[in-house]
Automatic annotation (TrEMBL), chain A:
Lineage, uppermost ranks: Bacteria, Bacillati, Bacillota, Bacilli, Lactobacillales
Subcellular location: Cell membrane
Domain of life: Bacteria
Domain ABC transmembrane type-1 as annotated: residue spans: 87-297
Protein's UniProt name: Phosphate transport system permease protein
Automatic annotation (TrEMBL), chain B:
Molecular function in Gene Ontology: ATP binding
The organism's taxonomic lineage, starting at the top: Bacteria, Bacillati, Bacillota, Bacilli, Lactobacillales
Pfam short name (any one): ABC_tran
Keywords, sorted A to Z: ATP-binding, Cell membrane, Membrane, Nucleotide-binding, Phosphate transport, Translocase, Transport
PROSITE patterns: ABC_TRANSPORTER_1, ABC_TRANSPORTER_2
UniProt protein name: Phosphate ABC transporter ATP-binding protein PstB
Length: 306, 269
């Protein structure tokens, strides 16, 4: 009897073997994912940096010049790859759409969690989830057939441009930012609200001074997440922004973003050519920006613990 | 748990000529949806005294206490019937400014719940909402309330630090200080020491005893020794009824009701 237990203590059993197998499987999967991510980074970086090393485009020119025509060369013999119009376009639509979406998203979230947490939440929650799931081409199509004509009639011009892009992105990121804001507000402990109410604060004072204040990091994360979506969105923006690689003079003149130039140009360049490498440089820029957005989100999230 | 006849009760009457009544309820019923949690409780609370509400878990102490400053308003589906008399007004009635009322009837919760703000901002939260802006007045208020809550000496050099960095007992005393910074008449406390260690518990108890001169205190407690130590009156809750209400020494030493006797001698609870 005793010996049997002793023996078992030292022997491998089915349980230990299956644990070993599980570890191997998860290690292999992790290794594959890491390899894929690293190769993507390597691929994009090597292609994107070729513009600067092989085609001798000056990095500063790339970031500050306004003529985008990488198929032809300038007086110094290097490709005309001035990405400033697209950089400006991308940041303009991103920042503008986030600025407009934030108050709407937070107000909706406050309604769903504080003002009508039962009925309002039950109705609006599935609606936001539905809106999050709509493919971006649908938003773009609606933008093309509704927003662009509306802008044309109201402000003149073609209707294509930053304003139309902003509007489409605003509608697109609104549900995402709203649903993340709802999560942030719901994470505020109930006893915070009770503490405030028990001190004679009104509901509005409680929302404003306690709930919104203490969920500020979560709300900021929601907004930055929305911005990162807006920055990376390609299809919907491309359909309404006009796709002219020009520095926009105003909100209703045709413009372009990093993503829209990428999607437009992808099929029209030869792999390895200067024009193709220049597109990879834009992709690299996008990748770096999404890295920045992620870093910001992580930084904020660390501060948002209760 | 044994079922005791709820007709078998002893509720001590307080002669209004000899005892000043700060707050009282008359036939108070509380419903969560359709289930009735409090079945008609009538109790007087004497001014500048400590009244303890004791009883087994689930007997309705918290429900009753939270009705007194209408915190149950915030739970959907609750209904409170009956009268809550405060300064000759039924504050359970329509047309009562609940926010104003809560400035006079403050509450401290079971779980210390300071805001994630500085110690200073926690205390000035209510006064600022009341429009006090003068820095000197606020500074003074912070000092006096923290002294009253026996916390001043420990935190006077870190008023601008987060309240969440304090220990549990300190947080609870901060919550008491925060509540009395509104200068309420009445302080409701729901098991304020149950989440604390024995030493913190006794500092909180000392704090309450020292506050008695200026505040009417109603405290829910699970801890019978605590009720015995600090309270003047005790109400024994059982299944949503108050079966016995008397001066504390009577409830613990000469209970008139069988259920009370069984409870205070530890036969159930
Ligand atoms: N929010 C609520 N919704 C429904 N029922 C509740 C709620 N809070 C308490 N109750 C019920 O009311 C009764 C009294 O609870 P409570 O007042 O918390 O008792 P105690 O504080 O004496 O432990 C219990 O039966 C409990 O289940
Ligand atoms: Mg309770």
């Amino acid at each position: 009897m005793n010996d049997e237990i002793k023996e078992k203590l030292l022997k491998k059993s089915r349980a230990t073997r299956s644990e070993f197998r599980g570890r191997i499987i998860s290690f292999v999967c992790t290794a594959i994912i890491v390899t894929v991510v690293v190769s993507i980074f390597y691929f994009v970086a090597s292609k994107g940096l070729a513009t600067f090393f092989s085609n001798k485009v000056n990095l500063w020119d790339f970031l500050s010049k306004t003529i985008w025509n990488p198929g032809s060369t300038d007086s110094h013999g290097s490709p005309q790859a001035g990405a400033l119009p697209m950089i400006v376009g991308s940041f303009a639509v991103t920042i503008l759409s986030a600025v407009i979406a934030t108050p709407f998203a937070i107000a909706t979230a406050v309604f769903m969690t504080e003002i009508s947490p039962n009925k309002g939440y039950k109705i609006l929650q599935p609606v936001t989830e539905l809106l999050v799931g709509i493919p971006s081409v649908v938003y773009g199509f609606i933008g093309l057939s509704v927003v662009v004509p509306f802008v044309r009639h109201t402000f003149g011009g073609t209707g294509f441009g930053i304003l139309a892009g902003t509007f489409v992105l605003f509608v697109m990121i609104l549900p995402t930012v709203t649903s993340m804001s709802v999560d942030a507000l719901r994470a505020v402990p109930r006893y915070y609200r009770e503490a405030s109410l028990a001190l004679g604060a009104t509901r509005w004072q409680t929302i404003y001074k306690v709930v919104l204040r203490s969920s500020a990091p979560g709300l900021a994360t929601a907004v930055v997440f929305g911005m990162s979506r807006a920055f990376g969105e390609a299809l919907a923006v491309q359909m309404v922004i006009g796709n002219a690689a020009l520095l926009p003079h105003n909100l209703v003149s045709p413009a372009s973003t990093l993503t829209s130039v990428l999607t437009m140009g992808m099929g029209n360049t030869v792999m390895g050519s200067a024009a193709n490498n220049a597109l990879w440089s834009l992709a690299l820029l996008l990748l770096l920006m999404s890295l920045v957005f992620n870093l910001v989100i992580n930084k904020i999230a660390k501060r948002g613990k209760f | 748990m044994q079922n005791y006849a709820s007709e078998d009760r002893y509720i001590k009457e307080l002669d209004p000529k000899k005892h000043e009544i700060a707050l009282s309820t008359e036939d108070l019923h509380v419903f969560y949806g359709t289930s009735e949690a409090i079945h008609g409780v009538s109790l007087p609370f004497e001014r500048f005294k400590i009244t303890a509400l004791i009883g087994a878990s689930g007997s309705g102490k918290s429900t009753y206490l939270r009705s007194l400053n209408r915190m149950n308003d915030n739970i959907e589906g609750t209904r409170v019937d009956g009268k809550i008399m405060y300064r000759d007004i039924d504050i359970n009635g329509k047309g009562v400014n609940v926010y104003e009322m809560r400035k006079h009837i403050g509450m401290v919760f079971q779980r210390p719940n300071p805001f994630s703000k500085s110690i200073y901002d926690n205390i000035t939260f209510a006064p600022k909402r009341n429009g006090i802006k003068n820095k000197k007045v606020l500074d003074e208020l912070v000092e006096t309330t923290l002294k009253q809550a026996a916390l001043w000496d420990q935190v006077k050099d870190q008023l601008d630090q987060s309240a969440l960095a304090l220990s549990g007992g300190q947080q609870q005393r901060l919550c008491i200080a925060r509540a009395i910074a509104m200068k309420p008449d009445i302080l409701l406390l729901d098991e304020p020491a149950s989440a604390l260690d024995p030493i913190s518990t006794s500092t909180v108890e000392d704090t309450l005893l020292s506050l008695k001169d200026h505040y009417t205190i109603i405290i829910v407690t699970h801890n019978m020794q605590q009720a015995g130590r600090i309270s003047d009156y005790t109400a024994f809750f059982h299944l949503g009824n108050v079966l016995e209400y008397d001066i504390t020494s009577n409830v613990f030493q000469r209970p008139k009701i069988q259920a009370t006797e069984d409870y205070v001698s530890g036969r159930f609870g």
